[in-house]
Design a protein that fits this description.
Length: 280
């Protein structure tokens, strides 16, 4: 789709007449990293599930490596642009990690478009005034030692992705076969792997919203892994305190990752009922 003068690749599951859920992936992550069985469960609950490749991931607009021609304000506009392109007046907006930051800003800048908010393994996009812990020592050591392979080498990039996600995710739920297969699909779909790996971390913050997290009016569910090594659970706790009425659902033994299959019996019904629309 042509959205905000750039190409955005969009995928939908379910009936367009059902209440919508818009999923926003994390940094350097295409929409492939939302497990399809998870999406199918949401759609089976009577939801129109929308996911898309953010800029520089998958089949969406790609920029030169190290030169992202956008900031987070543009990513917020893209989320709204996806809803506009699909003629969806409002949706539950669910974002993970960087996508969770985008979701918070969507809720602040476009409250009429957000029925409810689901924030997964993310941190306050607007300062909560709290001193929050950084990544774990083990993850910092991994990043210090990690060397990105040749982006043109498919097999090497798959091994690199498996290693990165192993460092982020909990060993309790790590599914190497699924990660490996998904990494191959991502490689094959991505316009420029170097741009996809580098550009989100180099984009600027953009214009800050006038209000703070206390101005979010959407019913909010915070899902946060108790074993998240990038944003320890204190980040999720801070979000739940800062957003009026927000509810924190800790996910035991879960790392920095989409809700794993073992949590879906709890997570999916909570997401479906959050907007006040009973699961079908």
């Amino acid at each position: 789709m042509r959205i905000n003068d750039v190409e955005i690749c969009v995928d939908t599951i379910g009936r367009s007449s059902d209440p919508a859920i818009l999923l926003i992936a994390g940094a350097a992550s295409s929409m492939d990293w939302w497990p399809e069985d998870f999406l199918a469960r949401l759609a089976a609950g009577g939801r129109y599930v929308i996911r898309y490749d953010t800029r520089d991931t998958g089949q969406s607009e790609s920029y030169p490596p190290g030169e992202p021609g956008y900031d987070i304000t543009d990513l917020v506009a893209d989320a709204i642009g996806v809803l506009d392109a699909l003629d969806v007046p409002s949706a539950q907006v669910a974002g993970i990690s960087m996508g969770g930051a985008v979701a918070q800003l969507v809720a602040l800048k476009h409250p009429d478009r957000v029925d409810s908010l689901v924030l997964i393994d993310t941190s306050p996009a607007v300062s909560s005034g709290e001193d929050l812990p950084g990544m774990t020592d083990d993850l910092r050591e991994f990043f210090t030692a990690d060397r990105t392979p040749d982006y043109a080498d498919r097999d090497a990039m798959i091994e690199h992705t498996v290693a990165v996600l192993r460092a982020f995710q909990s060993p309790v739920h790590f599914d190497e076969a699924w990660v490996r297969a998904t990494a191959g699909r991502v490689y094959d779909r991505t316009r420029n792997m170097a741009s996809s790996e580098q550009n989100h971390s180099q984009m600027k913050g953009g214009e800050q919203p006038a209000g703070g997290l206390g101005d979010i009016v959407a019913p909010t569910l915070v899902l946060h892994g108790t074993a998240d090594p990038l944003f320890p659970i204190a980040h999720g706790e801070a979000l739940a305190r800062a957003i009026p009425g927000a509810v924190l659902l800790p996910l035991d033994c879960v790392g920095h990752e989409p809700p794993p299959a073992a949590t879906w019996d709890v997570v999916v019904p909570r997401m479906l009922s959050l907007s006040g629309v009973a699961p079908s």
